[in-house]
Amino acid sequence: MHRAIALYSGGLDSLLSVIIVKSLGIDIVALNFFTGFTKPIDDKDKYYAEKFGFHIKQLDIREKFLPILKNPKKGYGKNLNPCIDCKILMLKESKNLMKEYKASFIVTGEVLWQRPMTQKKDIIFYIEKEADLKGLILRPLSAKLLPPTKPELEGIVNRELLYDFWGRGRKKQLSLCKKFGIDDIPQAAGGCLLTDPQFCKKVKDLLFYDQLTIEQVELLKIGKHFRLSEKCKIIVGRNEEENKILSGRKDLPLIYPLDFKGPFLIISGEYSEENLEKACKIAVYYSKRQKVPMVIKKEGREIVKEYSAMEEKEIVKYRI
Ligand code: SF4
Question: Is 192's C-beta closer than 6 angstroms to any atom of ligand 1?
């Protein structure tokens, strides 16, 4: 049996591409590349892998992705998404694994002209060349609009059974969902946080202060973020679940209201007494009270002190 590696984001197009190639009798190893901003594999992905009989594997490429995000050779898309360089990285990583997985080609869910940055013909070919995979990337959804690839020329894949989708419309994909019995239809895209303008504000802040690390990126995924100084940030929990996560960070100073349910807050980076006071006042503001005794847990000690709320006009100065 022939085998291919598929780039699998968990979005609809990547799932359909995997299923199409699998239905042609080719074994698939679906690789989900975790950049720190992409959606990790979840139960839904595992369900589809089992239902359609493909292997699924998550690969952590955060260490390699962060330098690209800081300085993408081909720039950013509409937000902070360095898609061209990111695609090249994922394809290079896939190429390196072809031998290990005994795969003879690579499958992607790309649809011609669907996304302006990476899915124009010239860009597709540029990415393919940079990844040194000329003729080895099969795009089942748009294959009939592209030159035949090696697996098609060698008769491993029947070109007639592939598709000619293009553009942003989703109708054709949805009819394929019916055909293949995809009941719970995944999101159109894989859900990369670097395409979310609100999230990107927080990433831009880290880039500006040269503080973009794997740990800082993970912290961006919870709470409201405030920058108090060049080296000091605070994160305020927005709900009980986030408060619980923040209170689990034993390595960072924690602030929370004494005796009643309210926001938890952690301090990240170096902080002064002035910053500590500001952090407490911001926590009081989000507790929706005027004055609150706050517990400050730091360096193995606990202090309780009463603070009044910071004024809203001052808070906005610190909000990222
Ligand atoms: S959307 Fe995100 S994960 Fe997808 S190619 Fe662009 S940067 Fe990479």
Answer: yes
